[in-house]
């Protein structure tokens, strides 16, 4: 056997801890941003933490405007409107503020504001990212307010193409934020259902990265420790949103999941993406629903790794006991057992199956995802029968 060969890349500067939001203006200046556009989603724009961020910038002599025309599953029209706002305000950088929608949209606006080609020319296919003029990508300071997506340490954004109802990944190495502020105090106001959904997103990132084939022991190690933090802290954060220690550990786990998944994702995301695009479900909660079904489907390829993982997590037994731990966690924090709990029906099964096969995450599944396999997974999740995914 020959020695493995791989290319690895790891994240950016992170300022972690309670109260670190007070460093926002200084972080902008260190990133070369003097006139930021703060990008967030419509719901978060109304909350006090967002106004606090704008006030902190203003008080430090960093004039900022806000753009909040961002849907929970952002679409290309949101990006286009954000680019127009960026240019009209003569901004020189982005503060991406919020959960996955605000962070992804902010990063893509910063990427696209100086480009002359259309957005979809930079989809994460092959080396399409090299089409971009890298010198015209605006700097980003990222401030996550949820603990799930990990987009604050990522080099891509997920945007739905409205014409096809398809989620697409836009990628460029320079989309990585220059500075990240991770302040768990910003997540204290998250309601339990959002805490649960975003936490399951982080778990899906760690689990799929760990199970994805390929040689990346750095990602594997980070994913395993991220899962330990989630199993120990997600129930606490859901039960008591003011538990700042649990909130902090969950924010670490979210960043760890996104750091790890550069290794790959898999069928959880390949199915979750089309369901979210067509039924407007919460991405993390959808991942949480699909998780045990995909685990069972992939068992023949991942069982030895899951046995090692269970040992690290202190779960006695092997694959079955780990699966039981996932099912118990879902039940404890209120994740529906099947897709009907997300108001998803079987009317668009064929479309979802076809979309899942071409989703960019499908290629990372440890068992090659076929039309038959994808249908089996979707049907099992629709019926709420985990054993049927085998």
Topology of this protein?
Layout: E1 13-16, H1 24-30, E2 36-39, H2 48-59, E3 65-67, H3 76-88, E4 93-98, H4 100-112, E5 140-144, E6 156-161, E7 166-171, E8 179-182, H5 192-211, H6 217-239, H7 244-260, H8 267-279, H9 283-297, H10 299-313, H11 319-333, H12 349-358, H13 371-383
Parallel strand pairs: 1-8, 2-3, 2-4, 4-5, 5-8
Antiparallel strand pairs: 6-7
Structure description:
- 48% of the residues lie in helices and 10% in strands.
- It has 390 residues and is of the alpha/beta class.
- The protein folds into two domains: 13-187, Rossmann fold (3-Layer(aba) Sandwich), CATH 3.40.50.1970; 192-389, Dehydroquinate synthase-like, alpha domain (Up-down Bundle).
- The strands form two sheets. A six-stranded parallel beta sheet has the order 1-8-5-4-2-3, sandwiched between helices.
- The longest helix is centred in the middle third of the chain and has 23 residues, at 217-239.
- The radius of gyration is 20 Å and the shape is globular.
- The relative contact order is 0.11.
- The model has no long low-confidence stretch (mean pLDDT 95).
In short:
The protein is of the alpha/beta class. It has helices at 24-30, 48-59, 76-88, 100-112, 192-211, 217-239, 244-260, 267-279, 283-297, 299-313, 319-333, 349-358, 371-383, and strands at 13-16, 36-39, 65-67, 93-98, 140-144, 156-161, 166-171, 179-182. Strand 6 (156-161) and strand 7 form a beta hairpin.
